[in-house]
Structure formats: structure tokens, C-alpha cells
Amino acid sequence: MLIREATPADWPAIWPFLREIVAAGETYSWDRDTDEDRARALWFKPAPGRTFVAVDEDGTVLGTAESHPNQAGGGAHVANAGFMVDPRHSGRGVARALCAHVLDRARADGYRAMQFNAVVETNDRAVALWESLGFEILATVPEAFHHPHKGYVGLHIMHRGL
Ligand SMILES: CC(C)(COP(=O)(O)OP(=O)(O)OC[C@H]1O[C@@H](n2cnc3c(N)ncnc32)[C@H](O)[C@@H]1OP(=O)(O)O)[C@@H](O)C(=O)NCCC(=O)NCCS
After folding, report:
1. For a pLDDT cut of 90, what percent of the chain falls above it?
2. In the chain, which end has fewer C-beta atoms inside a 10 angstrom radius, N or C?
3. Residue ranges per domain, the chain?
4. CA distances from 59 to 21, 30, 152 (A)
5. What topology is assigned to 2-161 in CATH?
6. Taking the model in full, what pTM does it have?
């Protein structure tokens, strides 16, 4: 698996699984019917935002990540990041590799910490993965996310220094 910066040419490979994940409404607090132009703008943020893809030997896109300052001005030294892995390639370490890469890149870019603002508490796989990569749950905002099957559930704020 290779992790590299994404280019606009990667978008057609990203959009089908990103749309599937967003439409499911279980892990991201985006509108479930987010259209392609809006999704591309959210995923390819302007610099200093960065977007990455994980690809296999054939160049198939397995997953993607993006990172950007969590806040502007005095809060810009804390990074935020998002991750989506094609469900057809889940469970083989793609997100773990993407997150390790994003953490290294954020450190090299001079960020001092990384914060996730809205990790759905029922997203067991993601929560366990982020904890194993050094993130801790600072707080859980109660009933902040309306899960399509589980009802109102909490959103974790997760953080780690770099
Ligand atoms: C969450 C997501 C990014 C994980 O991607 P992935 O490539 O399948 O994850 P990985 O294979 O790198 O790692 C999954 C880890 O979770 C563990 N895991 C799998 N199922 C689990 C479960 N039900 N509960 C706890 N841990 C679980 C695996 O054992 C693995 O840990 P390991 O590396 O120690 O073996 C992916 O499922 C996804 O894109 N989900 C939808 C979007 C999303 O939730 N993004 C994150 C928002 S915070």
C-alpha cells in the first residue's frame, strides 16, 4: 500500500465510496444527500489543507484522508482530520496507515496536536483505532448525533499531542 497526496484525478475513484459512507449517515455529520460538488469541496480543502489517498499496487484507491487546521488564527496550530476507507477494502489496515501518515505529515507541517471534533460514539472501529494511535476522549457531547438506527448518540472529542 502506498500513501500519497491526492490529486483532482483521484476524485472519481473516491466519490463512489465517500458517497456511500455519507449516505449511510452513521459516521459523519454531513447531510446524507451531500452532492458531488459540495463533497469534493469539503474533502479537497484549500491549503494548508491536505488530501491523501491510500492505493494498492495497481493504483486502486483503497481509502482517503484529509487534514486541515481545526480552527483559524490562534487555534491554527491544532490539526483536524477525516478518514474514509472503501468498505470493500476495510479491515486490512488502510485507516491505520492513513492516520499514521497524516500524523507524521501534521507534525512535519508544525502542528502541535490533532483533534477530532465529532467521532460518533457508536463507531466502535474508529474509536478503538484512534485510541490505539494515541488519541484520548476528552469529552463526549451527549446525544449530539442522530444515528439512523441507534437514535441520539454522543459525539466524542478526541485529541492527541504531536
Ligand atoms: C473507520 C474506518 C476509517 C476504519 O478503516 P479500516 O481501514 O477498515 O481500519 P483498519 O483496518 O486500519 O483498522 C481497523 C481496526 O479496528 C479494529 N476493529 C475492527 N472492527 C472493530 C470493532 N467492531 N470494534 C473495535 N475495533 C474493531 C480492527 O481490529 C483494526 O485494529 P487492528 O489494526 O489493531 O487490527 C472505516 O471503517 C470507514 O471509513 N468508516 C466510515 C467512515 C468513518 O467512520 N470514518 C472515521 C470517522 S471518525
Report:
1. 100
2. N
3. 2-161
4. 21, 28, 39
5. Aminopeptidase (3.40.630)
6. 0.96
